[in-house]
Design brief:
By secondary structure, the chain is mainly β. It folds into two domains: about 100 residues, Virus Head Decoration Protein, Chain: A (Beta Barrel), CATH 2.40.300; about 70 residues, Thrombin, subunit H (Beta Barrel), CATH 2.40.10. It is about 0% helix and about 40% strand. It is built from no helices and 18 strands. The termini are far apart. The mean pLDDT is about 95.
Length: about 190
């Protein structure tokens, strides 16, 4: 009698916050942007806080992966970009006309024209906001709610390979957030 082993895959992942620790600011911050119904804004997503109004902007970025073109780059899934957003690399900017999410490994963005610099491992950002905090708890966006808020983490160690893409221009020394050095991005 022989033992037969079956191989399988189990969904899972690593926690974004190292040791699960994140210091949180009191009160929640109202989202300035809108997102499609059911959009998941994951913990660790960079945000720019407006303390005077208790509002925040999700700082969107994409990491480009190999195999696409400068007018239809492939990007890491979960970027939160939407049709109509303008991707920017340096001084170059192009509008997103379509997003193909059918591939399990990446999304394909169709741009209005070629975006200079949109090559493998490059980052493109949306808007001019630079983050100073991160989302502390996963948030599912609901369109039937008038007041969408997120809790903001201000002191945390984030596992860089698991977290939302962070362009070098948002970091100091390649490992801590430029506008809040208490947020660190490490490899483990």
């Amino acid at each position: 009698m022989a033992i037969e082993f079956e191989k399988g895959k189990i969904k899972g992942g690593f926690p974004v916050f190292w040791r699960g620790e994140c210091k949180v600011l009191p009160g929640d911050f109202k989202l300035k942007q809108t997102f499609p119904e059911g959009t998941l804004i994951r913990k660790g997503t960079p945000i720019a806080l407006d303390f005077a109004k208790m509002e925040c902007t999700v700082c969107k970025a994409v990491k480009i992966v190999s195999g696409g073109t400068t007018s239809a780059p492939r990007v890491v899934k979960g970027s939160l970009v939407q049709i109509g957003d303008k991707l920017k690399i340096g001084e170059n900017e192009q509008t997103i006309n379509n997003i193909d999410k059918t591939n399990a490994d990446y999304d394909v963005l169709t741009l209005a024209a070629a975006l200079t610099g949109a090559t493998a491992n490059a980052f493109a950002v949306v808007g001019a906001d630079v983050p100073n905090a991160v989302v502390e708890t996963d948030k599912e966006y609901k369109t039937n709610m008038d007041f969408q808020t997120v809790s903001a983490g201000y002191d945390v160690v984030i596992l860089r390979e698991v977290a939302y893409p962070m362009p070098e221009e948002w970091l100091l020394g390649g490992w801590c957030m430029k506008n809040n050095p208490s947020i660190k991005y490490v490899r483990q």
